[in-house]
Amino acid sequence: MNAERLLQHYEKIADAPEAIARLRRFVLDLAVRGKLVPQDAKDEPASELLTRIEKAKARLVKAGELRKPRDLDSGGDVNKAYSIPSTWRWVRLDGVGAIVGGGTPSASDAYNFAEPGEGVPWLTPADLGGYSKLYISRGSRDLSETGARTSSATLMPKGTVLFTSRAPIGYVAIAANPISTNQGFKSIVPYVADCSRFIATAMKAFAPEIDAKAPGTTFKEVSGKVVAAVPFPLPPLAEQHRIVAKVDELMDLCERLETARAGREAVRDRLAAANLARFNAPDPETFRNDARFALDALPALTTRPDQIKDLRRTILNLAVRGKLVPQDPNDEPGSELLKLIATEIATYGEANCIGTVQTDLIADEKLPFAAPTGWEWTRLSTLFKVITDGDHQPPPKADTGVAFLTIGNITSGRLDFTGCRLVPEAYFKSLAPYRTPAKSDILYTVVGATYGRPALVETERPFCVQRHIAILKPVEAMSVRFLMTLLASPLIYDQATNSITGTAQPTIGLRPLRNFLAPLPPLAEQHRIVAKVGALMALCDRLEASLTATVATRRRLLDALLAEALAPADASLSGVSDRQTVATVSGDPEKVIFAERSAYILSLAYERHRFARRERTFGHVKAQKILHLVEAEAGFDLGRAPIRDAAGPNDFKHMLAVEQWARGHERFVFETNGAGYLLRQLSNFDKSLKTEHGPDPHTRAIATRLIDILVPMDTRQAEIFATVYSAWNNLLIEGKAPTDTEIVCAARDDWHPDKLKLPAGEFFAALAKLRLEGIVPKGTGKFVHGPYQKALFN
């Protein structure tokens, strides 16, 4: 059965995006296709079950309880959507059960209703909202005898499959006892009672398709005619029971997987919160060690984008509190910087006829925190030459002219001119200079749900802005990047939130904005803070990229498994994709994805070497080192489990699997030249760089840069370079702050006996090269175990 491998990997793919919901839907899909359990030749075929159904319907017609039905097995108007086992039959849904609607008595007459248990059981779709059990006995209220008699509600027997046809479409349950419904149901009363469980399973599978056929948008409802005509795959009764049992088993497993995942997420959330608390409420005595521990733990605890967002906020919070970098007593203090700023603002005001802005005095007891040594508290207005906004009058429109930006043109701290309005150039020239943004100014949104977002002007293109955007012109004595950090920090955002007026449209006035409290560090420290924030934000970017890659891998694995499970059991290999073919051969679709990714990186590396006429240096050793560095630095998961080998960080099994896949798909081979192995292209080499599993543009750029650094190196240099990087990363993962000597010792003395044959000076040179190229591990790469350690961990 094609679904077997999916079921084997059930727990492995549980963390893919919406995996549990997709698995539930897929189990139902397999159930109605005859792919969930094997067929048994001893089962009474569905044709015999149809004969029983015919007899049951004939009895109902004779008793006057049912109109004369259509021929069940004619199938003339049944849309046979897919192939089913030979022992099954396609029929219409009304061929296996009567379709029954419902009714509601006058709601204005209280005597039409009764308390639950005191009248006739009656359901509305709302009674099934959030209801997780399969069987239901009654709703939130019953019908009285009068209400049941005066409405079109029909009392249906135990075992009726209840299906909501509106508000919303698709809730499914089974009547635990005789029950009636309102008109929001098109229920199925099975002609053979033993079929009710399979019918309920099938209706859950068909619900999305039935919903899609319903007319309307705001209020959708499906008619009894549409429900009656739903094509229904009817299995033998014995197989129905096996299918239902397997569905119950797998749905229970889904429930347990969901509970386990929720538990894991809750634990990670608590640990992540505790980890960030080390930053947000730091102990001055232990902050450095706490910070290193917290950073080392981040990759293991960060599994969702919102956690990375919290980390970014924490970094900004530390930056403006003076906790991110150490203070230097030799720095010129903030008090001196304030004098320079005051002079610059006065000069600008005189030149532009701008009066002095009055700000409130600062009361010590209202300060958010004690300023570090050399820092000063001030108001935001004292850090900018002017804080103003756009023209308050609606600007004239024009087909040509100068760009006019609104809040919608500010996204993720950047300006986006796409689709912006234009205003006449004459209007633009009429604006005061301080109302027109210039390069290095900062824009700040002050109106609407997206208030409090700064954006740095990095273009020399002339433009103007609407009044919902504040224009902040920094003084030259300040670091503009530090001011961006300050404006993006929780310290300023919280003040913005507290100053808001209006409810329908939140607004930050210019006067409150100018009065925001702002900490002022020495200029030299501002530059150090900006550098540290940049490095940490780069780490966040890498975590985000790694998380995205992991999510994509799990999604693709799930997609591959689902595609394989749905493929015909006798499908020839020539009729399926590369991924499906190898999945069938190798038995592990996840490894196929990793093989395709790795083949992409190796093909890219070969191309870069060939471009530089260095392809004869690109053999097994270099290939493994490139794979290791790309996986670690770019966060591009290749599925490797590296060990400490004489030639550096290697994963032989992974490399062998990649080579087998590449050879099998005519991409490339590594062939011996007597002294080693070199890559040789095969007929489909170009396809390696066109795979859907390749990196995104940002990750590819990082990978290309890493490859280009290794291109000029010979095998020995590349081996030492990657080994030093890996040893350094290992030490960081272990929570150490290693010296250069300790890094070299870990890469040479403690790595492998063969490394002692190489001069220590070459390892120090590799360390210097890493720093020169900005390739500094953060402890986020994979730990490279010794051969025996790896065996223990596996």
From TrEMBL:
Pfam families: Methylase_S. Belongs to the type-I restriction system S methylase family. GO terms for molecular function: DNA binding. This is Type I restriction modification DNA specificity domain-containing protein. Residues 85-259, 397-549 form the Type I restriction modification DNA specificity domain. SUPFAM superfamilies: DNA methylase specificity domain (SSF116734). The lineage of its organism: Bacteria, Pseudomonadati, Pseudomonadota, Alphaproteobacteria, Hyphomicrobiales. CDD domains: RMtype1_S_EcoJA69PI-TRD1-CR1_like, RMtype1_S_SonII-TRD2-CR2_like. PANTHER family: TYPE I RESTRICTION ENZYME ECOKI SPECIFICITY SUBUNIT, TYPE-1 RESTRICTION ENZYME ECOKI SPECIFICITY PROTEIN. It comes from Mesorhizobium hungaricum. GO terms for biological process: DNA restriction-modification system. It comes from the Bacteria. InterPro entries: Restrct_endonuc_typeI_TRD, Restrct_endonuc_typeI_TRD_sf, Type-I_RE_S_subunit. Keywords: DNA-binding, Restriction system.
